[in-house]
Amino acid sequence: MQSAILAITAYVIATFVASALIVRFAPRAHSSRHIRKNLILFTVLPILLVVDILSTIDLLRRACRRMICAAFELLSGRSLYPNEFKGYAYFGYSRRRHNRRKGDRQATSRATGKVKIANS
């Protein structure tokens, strides 16, 4: 029982000191921002550090993808098609302008005066 209390106390002190050092030396990290907002989160520092590691891996993946795409565009002489996220699949048409309904495009065009009206 006494060793469990000692282990919990050592864990709390170690995570407190480690979180203070992380906030000081990496202030823009995910864990630093969350610990500064809510101090009690220093107790779950290992979980926050896993999130930091995963976000760093994602950042490196994006950088590698950009380099590979740029090299492919340079070698092929053509740009790649954009890979945009298409959200609102059920309730909407998308955030992109050309994916809206035809009626919506015509209404917008009429409002700006860009629609040609056939001679009556």
Would you list the SSEs in sequence order as H and E?
A: HHHH
Q: Which runs of at least 5 residues are low in confidence (pLDDT < 50)?
A: none
Write down the overall mean pLDDT.
82
User: What is the percent of helical residues?
Assistant: 55-70%
Question: What kind of sheet is the major sheet?
Answer: none
Please state the structural category.
Answer: mainly alpha
Total DSSP helices: 4
- The count of β-strands is 0
Distance separating the two termini: 94 Å
Describe the structure using short key phrases.
single chain, mainly alpha, 4 helices, 120 residues
Structure overview:
- With 120 residues, the chain is an all-alpha fold.
- 62% of the residues lie in helices and 0% in strands.
- It has helices at 2-25, 30-37, 45-76, 102-112.
- Helix 1 (2-25) crosses helix 2.
- The longest helix has 32 residues, at 45-76.
